[in-house]
Design brief:
CATH superfamily of one domain: PAS domain
Shape: rod-shaped
Distance between the termini: 38 Å
Strand content: 15-25%
Number of helices: 10
Order of helices and strands: HHHEEEEEHEEEEHEEEEHEEEHHHH
Largest sheet: 9 strands, antiparallel
Structural class: alpha+beta
CATH topology of one domain: Beta-Lactamase
CATH class of one domain: Alpha Beta
């Protein structure tokens, strides 16, 4: 090994030893012993509190999401119950012969009377196998009745009428064949009362769901289909009024993924080149709803086969989003209710509390550090004085005033300094006495000259005295 390498190794070892000595010095070890457990306790307590709060928030959000989804289910149930009851009543009335379906003009009177009641429905219509059609609607205190029959040349003519017999005010004329409409074909195919697929109504700017009820004669042949429409914009209004969370969103979609209702200010359909089309929820303008449905479709291949409830979470822009999905399939429909709530909606106060705790912890740590440093200096000063006194004794220069300040302290260092001072006085007096004996022996040797055996003995005693003095000084 070269001399430069040895020198570098020696320097490194010396530096490491000095650093270790500084670290174990009371000046640093005492503050570290105070600060380390304090900081560790603050950080550990804050972290455990944050994690437990986070878990509690997740449980709370899950509970809120389930309650919101259950409220939506109840609203949908109540929203669809009346049309279902009307469907059952119409079937019974036709079977009992109380409701005649052979003459659409006479049927119009019955339908007009039913739609005038606010407790039933605001629209009711009937189409038959001959292509005839009658429609009655009462909305915003305005009554309307439509006919498609031989008298209208099988074109749909809409009238505004306060009385079904007064058809003087014509609203519009259009081509219409009830037999080609989806609600008619679906009910004719199923042969039982059904809910149609959701579609965009021609008569108004809204998604529509039809309760279609097929009517058969005694021979079992289809005579026609009764229908009543439910306009789904009211579901969106209900979702907007729901208290989910500051930034949470609720939505309803079909198993196909198309949007039905949303708690945001967004229409559940879109217009392309003047044509109204259904809006896939994965294309929603609302980012939270869009990403939620995208993750849902990625995790489940077929929403129609989804179990009753499903929960998951995902990250959106670094924030955790908690989602609860509820499958509505016991009402004759196949809809999915979703509630998505950002965890930050409930974590913000907890995060603020954690920040305040850490700030207070930093303040306590600084105060504790200063106190520990002051305590270390309070201990080190008397130790330095004792070291200084020991060095003075070694050099035979001890000054009792060096320990005067330490002896005046009210703690244990005062007693130690007094004992050290007494010991120093004894040592210094013995050293002085030994020095005087050595001088006396040397004088005797000089006086006796070269007197044989006595001189040799004296020289031996002198060497021994010097050795004892030197050994004492080395200590």
């Amino acid at each position: 090994m070269s001399s430069n390498s040895k020198s570098f190794l020696s320097t490194s070892v010396t530096t490491g030893v000095n650093a270790t000595k500084r670290l174990v010095s009371i000046r640093w070890s005492l503050p570290l012993c105070v600060i380390t457990p304090l900081v560790s306790g603050i950080l550990l307590t804050s972290w455990l509190a944050y994690r437990s709060s986070q878990k509690a928030v997740d449980e709370l959000v899950g509970k809120i999401s389930k309650e919101v989804a259950a409220n939506i289910e109840k609203q949908v149930d109540s929203y669809l119950t009346t049309p279902s009851l009307i469907s059952a009543v119409i079937e019974a009335e036709v079977a009992n012969g109380n409701l005649k379906v052979q003459d659409t003009r006479e049927l119009a009177k019955s339908l007009w009377g039913l739609t005038q009641s606010e407790n039933l429905t605001n629209n009711l219509y009937y189409g038959n196998e001959a292509g005839e059609f009658v429609y009655s609607e009462h909305h915003d205190d305005v009554s309307r009745i439509d006919f498609v029959d031989q008298d209208t040349d099988f074109r749909r003519i809409a009238y505004q009428a306060d009385d079904v017999t007064d058809l003087s005010e014509q609203l519009k004329v259009s081509d219409y064949d009830p037999r080609v409409r989806p609600w008619y074909k679906e009910a004719a195919f199923s042969k039982v009362p059904i809910w149609s697929q959701v579609y965009i109504a021609n008569s108004r700017d809204a998604l529509t769901l039809t309760r279609a009820t097929p009517i058969f004669n005694q021979a079992g042949q289809l005579q026609g289909i009764f229908g009543t429409d439910v306009y789904l914009f009211e579901l969106s209004n209900f979702l907007k009024d729901l208290s989910v969370s500051p930034n949470g969103k609720a939505f309803i979609i079909e198993s196909s993924g198309d949007l039905i209702a949303i708690s945001a200010n967004e229409k559940p359909f879109m217009e392309v080149d003047g044509e109204k089309l259904r809006l896939p929820a994965s294309n929603s303008q609302n980012q939270l709803v869009r990403e939620t449905v995208t993750h849902l479709l990625q995790n489940l291949d077929d929403l129609s086969q989804m179990k009753d409830q499903y929960s998951f979470n995902f990250a959106l822009e670094g924030e955790k989003q908690l989602v609860h999905i509820y499958h509505l399939k016991d009402l004759g429909i196949d809809w999915i209710v979703g509630v998505a709530i950002p965890q930050s909606d409930y974590m913000e106060k907890i995060r603020a509390t954690t920040r305040h705790t850490l700030i207070i912890g930093v303040g306590i740590t600084i105060v504790a550090s200063l106190m520990a440093l002051a305590a270390a200096l309070h201990i080190i000063r008397p130790i330095n004085k004792l070291n200084q006194s020991a060095d003075e004794i070694k050099r035979n220069r001890f000054n009792p005033r060096t320990l005067a300040h330490v002896m005046a302290r009210p703690d244990e260092f005062s007693k130690l300094a007094k004992l050290f001072n007494d010991m120093a006085i004894v040592v210094m007096s013995r050293q002085q006495s030994l020095s005087e004996q050595v001088k006396l022996l040397k004088t005797e040797i000089d006086q006796n000259g070269n007197a044989g055996d006595n001189r040799q003995k004296l020289e031996m005693l002198l060497r021994h005295a010097k050795q004892v003095r030197k050994a004492y000084k080395d200590k």
